[in-house]
Design brief:
Chain lengths: 138, 138, 138, 138
Amino acid sequence: MTAPMFTWPVRVYWEDTDAGGIVFYANYLKFFERARTEWLRSLGLHQSALKAELGGMFVVTETQLKYLNSARLDDELLVTAQLTEKGRASLIIEQQALRKTEHATPQLLCSGSIRIGWVSAANLKPQRLPQQLLTRLP
Amino acid sequence: MTAPMFTWPVRVYWEDTDAGGIVFYANYLKFFERARTEWLRSLGLHQSALKAELGGMFVVTETQLKYLNSARLDDELLVTAQLTEKGRASLIIEQQALRKTEHATPQLLCSGSIRIGWVSAANLKPQRLPQQLLTRLP
Amino acid sequence: MTAPMFTWPVRVYWEDTDAGGIVFYANYLKFFERARTEWLRSLGLHQSALKAELGGMFVVTETQLKYLNSARLDDELLVTAQLTEKGRASLIIEQQALRKTEHATPQLLCSGSIRIGWVSAANLKPQRLPQQLLTRLP
Amino acid sequence: MTAPMFTWPVRVYWEDTDAGGIVFYANYLKFFERARTEWLRSLGLHQSALKAELGGMFVVTETQLKYLNSARLDDELLVTAQLTEKGRASLIIEQQALRKTEHATPQLLCSGSIRIGWVSAANLKPQRLPQQLLTRLP
């Protein structure tokens, strides 16, 4: 499956860094989440509205990340999101964080694979992905 | 009013620091919150139980903090909480973060005053502090 | 002194919220920081470059925040920054977080006053604000 | 290799939760980090001292996490750390977050595998794990 690649810009602020002088590794999960949220929004899927209308929400069930290079304060990143697997109750999204450089090619900082499942907002039990949602996905 | 002083230990981890090599200033609000939570728990007030039983919760309505000295990775802090004002719908708690030192006296890092109000969990509207709660406070 | 008002958009993501269903109050300090950083950048002041060139950095020395209304997931906020005091070694910036609404007027969520001081990056000792920096400020 | 299992208690506070009412998944990386830090400390390895003495530091280079159950405000967790691979330049630590329950057996919430590498603090280049460090590891 070759879904189109979605890209979202992220700027590195003080809040994102740690005493190593670089972006704290756990924060790439936040950057990835922002890009996934905006990717869903670009498809007409607003998570707060989904919760209100369908009584369900996405939860992250699995993450695999590799950290290759470090980002620093003031760096401009590009974060990608690409749907690579569409199951009955979960999706897999491949994501990358890259640093904009003066050169043509951005530098890869972190790549990851995120599985998200659909659950009832009331009891957090896994559920099938609603049809209204599936039809919006590429 | 001279309520007793409650003290809670906090260790500084990577997650707490920023690229300046010190604890990110916003994180003192987290340290203060942990100490307030444990202070309430020491009085028999568990916030998740309060929400379930009384349908209400505390929200922070005002914070004033002064930053005097910096904490670094691996530092051991002591965080205090002391009730200084008990109103109908809100409390003021004075708090300090101090660093343990080899000397007798810990070093003051950050002092603050936090006002918390009681609101309905359903609509976030301010409410009077429940009697069950007030009777537990010093 | 009536310096111009700087405004920066902030979107609310899962990372910003807490179990009360609203933005965790400590995170407004992050939103304010992002707006201050972008305000400085708009004046040609890049903090990582300032550190490299002048050997100093800004640290937050005092914060006063009032929380008036709550923000929720997916909300679009506007965060302002306005310089209101320019001392020898510190600045005071007044800031607001407002929620965009369907109406003309955004709703005020949180207002604050942030004092930032200039310190040596090496030893964190307070220093006079460098002339190169002062001349850029409004 | 069967290294002993290290266990560290973690309490869930407001700061750890999100608007889904549960612990925000990225925060398990923080909980795991705290447990790894305390595991290293229990072996006599203090990271701030290592940086000062050896000029190096650990960075996380790979994380794999599975989320099985959710934690909520006020929950008491146990976080484990167990060294499962000791390479020339990196370690793999298997970790779990479990919730204390009234029953004998804690409930597994999240399990993960974290690879950490040793780098020069000056330029972040990967380096062999120092002998002083290796001899302390089980």
